[in-house]
């Protein structure tokens, strides 16, 4: 798990303008707005109605993860070969030169392929490239399920200190065990004793919490009593595993 960087943008953030014009250029703003609208309509990004924060959708992230798995760690030769094939270049050497000249990142290439696959109708190559640049600077929404209180590095300490007993769950994007836990979230929460508050945070965006709890993977659970960490474990948490941990900490231990 690596430290995350908050790259969410607001709708009026000039970083969203990939037209190459200044942010106060009317034509540039119009083009960027149309590009963003197309991404929203295609289900690639969503805009929060209250904060105007722009994030990629969960459905698009599922599509992107397929291409990310294929190209994130691919050799340079395979990466350049794929670029040559997609853009109909003569050779991998030509592709390598083009990548260097334009400063194309693997993340942008993955985004290009994922957007093309995700949209019902393919835009032009130039438009797809601009879309990929925009999307490469965005992040998905929170991986924390709605059923628990969303926390972060700035709020988890108050959460655990203001409850006699509290559990903080740790989540991550592109995490199969996390998704499996979300499918079981109702049963998992039913296994938590009454009176135990349950929150959750994005582990990649919470380095302070990870250092404090020595948690380095997701999913994970940290059980607190009277503001102190009593137990923490990583890996998929089944209802039975959660019930056993709660019994040990809150009934058998001194956290009752």
UniProtKB/TrEMBL annotation:
Q: Which SUPFAM superfamilies match?
A: Thioredoxin-like
Residue ranges occupied by any Thioredoxin domain in the UniProt entry? 138-251
Q: Which CDD domains does the entry link to?
A: TRX_family
Identify the Pfam families for this entry. Thioredoxin
Q: Which InterPro entries match?
A: Thioredoxin-like_sf, Thioredoxin_domain
Region annotation (Disordered) maps to: 1-33
Q: Where is the composition biased (Basic and acidic residues)?
A: 1-14
State what protein this is by name: Thioredoxin
What organism, scientifically named, is this protein from?
Halococcus saccharolyticus DSM 5350
């Amino acid at each position: 798990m690596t430290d995350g960087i908050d790259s969410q943008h607001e709708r009026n953030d000039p970083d969203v303008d990939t037209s190459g014009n200044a942010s106060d250029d009317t034509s540039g703003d119009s083009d960027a707005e149309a590009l963003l609208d197309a991404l929203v309509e295609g289900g690639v990004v969503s805009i929060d109605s209250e904060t105007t924060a722009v994030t990629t959708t969960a459905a698009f992230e599922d599509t992107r993860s397929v291409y990310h798995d294929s190209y994130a760690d691919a050799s340079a030769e395979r990466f350049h070969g794929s670029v040559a094939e997609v853009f109909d270049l003569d050779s991998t050497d030509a592709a390598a030169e083009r990548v260097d000249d334009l400063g194309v990142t693997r993340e942008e290439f993955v985004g290009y392929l994922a957007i093309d696959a995700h949209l019902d109708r393919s835009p032009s190559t130039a438009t797809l490239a601009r879309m990929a640049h925009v999307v490469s600077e965005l992040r998905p929404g929170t991986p924390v399920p709605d059923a628990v209180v969303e926390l972060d590095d700035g709020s988890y300490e108050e959460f655990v200190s203001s409850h006699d007993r509290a559990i903080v769950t740790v989540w991550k994007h592109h995490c199969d065990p996390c998704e499996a836990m979300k499918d079981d979230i109702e049963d998992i929460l039913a296994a938590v004793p009454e009176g135990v508050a349950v929150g959750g945070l994005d582990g990649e965006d919470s380095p302070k919490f990870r250092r404090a709890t020595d948690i380095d993977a997701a999913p994970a659970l940290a059980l607190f009593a009277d503001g102190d960490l009593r137990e923490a474990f990583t890996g998929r948490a089944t209802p039975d595993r959660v019930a056993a941990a709660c019994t040990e900490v809150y009934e058998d231990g001194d956290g009752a």
